[in-house]
Specification:
- Belongs to the AlaDH/PNT family.
- Strands 3-2-1-4-5-6-14-15 form an eight-stranded mixed β-sheet, sandwiched between helices. Strands 9-8-7-10-11-13-12 form a seven-stranded mixed β-sheet, with helices on both faces.
- The relative contact order is 0.16.
- The protein is globular.
- Helix 4 links the parallel strand 4 and strand 5.
- With 359 residues, the chain is of the alpha/beta class.
- 36% of the residues lie in helices and 17% in strands.
- The model has no long low-confidence stretch (mean pLDDT 96).
- The chain has two domains: 179 residues, Rossmann fold (3-Layer(aba) Sandwich); 171 residues, 3-Layer(aba) Sandwich (Rossmann fold), CATH 3.40.50.720.
Length: 359
């Protein structure tokens, strides 16, 4: 199969769909890999590195889209990309269609078979292709919160870890999954006071055991969320419903009970965000203020650390991508996990959670 890797064009997105190491694996499986020139610049992989791995370098994204039978990306296709897709192609990338009906319409109109990283499942029902970027985003969320709390960025001027004699910042993490766990680990490491809020008692027990009492755990109700965000210096939104829009756990009315110049970091923004007042931002202009509360809602947080992120992502996606290249879209019929990842086929949304969110 001819596998194409265009350069990412989303604002401040430096990751790449295939690293040179991954290209070498595809070539070893007998596939031809077409890479747009400078696609790997963000991970310090030049065209020569891709050529050494066996790829053919093409001078433009248009040529990659025109020649490839399968397109491997990182972020969802932008409007000038989805119009280049065809009904004889496979698209393998993050899609996050639930909050993006225009992209959904574009993909359906193209006829492409689109497999979304974020809804591929493993045998245990986990999300193996979302997990590595959730790990990165969870860790970055604390760095983002710390920066946003700086006075010169409009924040409260609170140091996450405090110092002897001065209390540390209070960090509340909404959601105890992969993002929330990694956010809590980073916040604890910096010395912050951390609370994790989740609606699963078994998960809260696991987190209590994991962190050996170094975090507070609370069962998620509206009252608890109001109490916790009211006392927080930073709130990390880390909730996920696979394929579906994120629930709005924090309403605008709740912002009135928060500390002035406290910070909300919405890691769920790719799925529409879990704060009512969230809207997607970019690394170029990451924050905005609503009712005295700073919002950080960058939709591609791991793009800030592309070298780490691209390799972590490729480690996870490689076996699934090779299966698609080896067997075509029929690989989904043979693999229930890949079938869960199939979002668009023959002009229709075929993932039920995504379809429900788009209705």
């Amino acid at each position: 199969m001819r596998v194409g890797v265009p350069k990412e064009i989303k604002n401040h997105e430096y990751r790449v769909g295939l690293t040179p190491g991954a290209v070498r694996e595809y070539v070893a499986h007998g596939h031809e890999v077409l890479v747009e020139t400078q696609a790997g610049a963000g991970i310090t992989a030049d065209d020569a590195a891709y050529e050494a791995a066996g790829a053919k370098i093409l001078p433009s994204a248009e040529e990659v889209f025109a020649a490839a039978q399968m397109i491997v990306k990182v972020k969802e296709p932008q409007p000038n990309e989805w119009v280049q897709l065809r009904d004889d192609q496979i698209l393998f990338t993050y899609l996050h269609l639930a909050p993006d009906p225009e992209q959904a319409k574009g993909l359906m109109a193209s006829g492409v078979s689109a497999v979304a990283y974020e809804t591929v499942t493993d045998r245990a029902g986990g999300l193996p292709l979302l997990a590595p970027m959730s790990e990165v985003a969870g860790r970055l969320s604390i760095e983002a919160a710390g920066a946003a709390l700086m006075a010169y960025n409009g924040g409260r001027g609170v140091l996450l870890g405090g110092v002897p004699g001065v209390a540390p910042a209070r960090v509340v993490v909404l959601g105890g999954g992969v993002v929330g766990t990694h956010a809590a680990r980073m916040a604890i490491g910096l010395g912050a006071e951390v609370t994790i809020v989740d609606r699963s008692l078994p998960r809260l027990r696991e987190l209590d055991e994991l962190f050996q009492g170094r975090v507070r755990t609370r069962y998620s109700t509206m009252d608890v969320i109001e109490q916790e965000i009211g006392a927080a210096d930073a709130v990390i939104g880390a909730v996920l419903i696979p394929g579906a829009s994120a629930p709005k756990l924090v309403t605008r009315a709740m912002l009135g009970g928060m500390k002035r110049a406290s910070v909300l970091v919405d890691v769920a923004i790719d799925q529409g965000g879990c704060f009512e007042t969230s809207h997607a931002t970019t690394h170029a202009d990451p924050t905005y203020e609503v009712d005295g509360v700073i919002h950080y809602c960058v939709a591609n947080m791991p793009g800030a650390v592309p070298l780490t992120s691209s390799h972590a992502l490729n480690n996870a996606t490689l076996p699934y991508g090779l299966a698609l290249a080896d067997k075509g879209i029929a690989a989904c019929d043979d693999n229930p996990g890949l079938m869960s990842g199939l979002n668009v086929r023959a002009g229709k949304i075929v993932n039920e959670a995504v379809a429900q969110s788009l209705r």
